[in-house]
Amino acid sequence: MSATVQAQGDLLLSASNLSVRFGGVLAVNGVSFDVRRGEVFTLIGPNGAGKTTVFNLISRIYTPSTGEITWHGGDAPLKLTQQPPHAMAALGIARTFQNIELFEHATVLQNLLVGRHVHRRTGFWREMLFTGATRRAEVHARETAERVIELLDLQHHRDSLVAGLPYGVRKVVELARALCTEPKLLLLDEPSSGLNVEETADMAFWIQDIQKELGVSVLMVEHDMSLVSKVSDRVLAMNQGEVLATGTPREVQTDAKVVEAYLGSVDDVSSLRRVA
After folding, report:
1. How many domains does the chain have?
2. 20, 48, 69, 204: least buried by Cβ within 10 Å?
């Protein structure tokens, strides 16, 4: 098999020349990247760089002004821009949000079972009559949710209302709900946001487990560079809606354009050192 064919077989998602304009503002400009099967691919950049906008394009919350997003997770390549937002979970794309989106007055288990809804095929009348097929589907949903609860160490919180849980635990519950959809690609929008050092270390552990034990690819937006360096296979740095650099975490963090975007020009950094 040629390297080109093998590389194409490894692709899970391709973004090509993505641009999106809001009125007179060009929020994303000509962004292209690929996500490979089984990898953690991370978008980094200063606030306002366009990272979450790219996530919203993939999630179909926004439609690109130009460019295309191709999904390679099915039997044949599929143009995501031609799909409605509610179809993403069924295709195998799940997402968490920077601002947690959970049912606060439901238990952890109930929230996870909501994530299984995309796989239910029993229909209204079978649900009403609670047929054998419905019972089997319910058992399978519970088994899947329990496996995720065990993976993410949520046993102690299984029957707790989300409203009474600490913020860090809620972040893990939202991650668990996304995993209950059995995704091929998991979009994590700033998973360490609001977490302390210990909770961020736990989050890194969960992400590595999701990648290695479940074989789920991860596309992540993140500011915490220690987390990025620990879990990422490849990193794409953005600034002002454009791509600055792509490569390993070390390659990107030492790229001159990335350093300038975060710290200013070489002259700026030198002057800071002189003042210090």
Report:
1. 2
2. 48
- 164 exposure class (CB count in 10 Å sphere: 0-12, 13-18, 19+): exposed
What pLDDT sits at residue 3? 37
With tokens 């070390």, the residue in question is 250
Cα 63 from Cα 196, distance rounded (Å) = 35
Q: What is the DSSP letter of 173?
A: H
Rounded-to-integer distance, Cα 187 and Cα 207, Å: 11
Please give the pLDDT value at position 114. Answer: 84
Distance CA 74, CA 145 (A): 24
pLDDT of residue 32: 97
In a domain, 120, yes or no: yes
- Which segments of the chain have a pLDDT < 70? 1-9, 116-140, 263-276
Q: What is the pLDDT of residues 175-224, one digit of tens each?
A: 999 998 899 999 999 999 999 999 999 999 999 999 998 899 999 999 99
CA dihedral 151, 153, 157, 159 (to 10 degrees): 30
Q: What share of the chain is helix, strand, coil (3-state, %, to 5)?
A: 45, 25, 30
**Gap between the terminal Cα atoms of the chain:** 56
Q: Does any domain span residue 191? A: yes
The residue among 182, 212, 234 that closes a domain is: 182
pLDDT of 136 reads 64
Q: Which domain holds residue 134?
A: 104-182
- Residue 182: in which H helix or E strand, if any? none
| Residue 123 pLDDT | 54
Name the amino acid, one letter, at 100: I
Residue 160 included in any domain: yes
Beta strands in the chain (DSSP E): 11-22, 25-36, 40-44, 66-71, 78-79, 93-95, 185-189, 217-221, 234-239, 242-247
